[in-house]
Give the backbone structure.
Amino acid sequence: ETGVTQTPRHLVMGMTNKKSLKCEQHLGHNAMYWYKQSAKKPLELMFVYNFKEQTENNSVPSRFSPECPNSSHLFLHLHTLQPEDSALYLCASSQSNAISYNEQFFGPGTRLTVL
Amino acid sequence: AQSVAQPEDQVNVAEGNPLTVKCTYSVSGNPYLFWYVQYPNRGLQFLLKYITGDNLVKGSYGFEAEFNKSQTSFHLKKPSALVSDSALYFCAVRDGADFGNEKLTFGTGTRLTIIP
């Protein structure tokens, strides 16, 4: 495995529910990412955190709320989602460096279904 | 702006034959290029990257990729395909001119099927 874990692996929720996705990286990286993967669409970057600070919010609806309490943990809080939000949500981490660029390591993802 | 294109949704190759998965990119500065593989119900796994140096990059599982600046391409190759290579392959690019930008742009993916 890559050293990035995600829980839960599968989640089914109603549109009025509140739930949270959790990501943890054991690689000592300083940057963490949330991506959305939908069928037949490119991977969509949602949020980027660098040293716990959010550096990118890719026009994501406010029903998705990220939280990064430290450089090893990343959460995605979900509230009043829509059926079109059903997708695989992937977390990734990397060692961010302004001079060179290091690869991102991905977790296994959370398969989210919104009913 | 940075972008990447994978022109083939699906590639089928007979086991033992060489394989190529195509990728072209567009950046304003120097490109940082990556290939990832995704197996069913798994996250993306890093295969290889080009940052600078030799145009031929070798990576995991016997894969390699050739950086071609004039054609703005970074095709993934393997001399002899295995059935276990069947998976979804993603090319990704970051614009080296954009310091501080952590954004990787991914292609739409190519499904590679190796036929026994």
User: Anything to note?
Assistant: The radius of gyration of chain B is 14 Å.
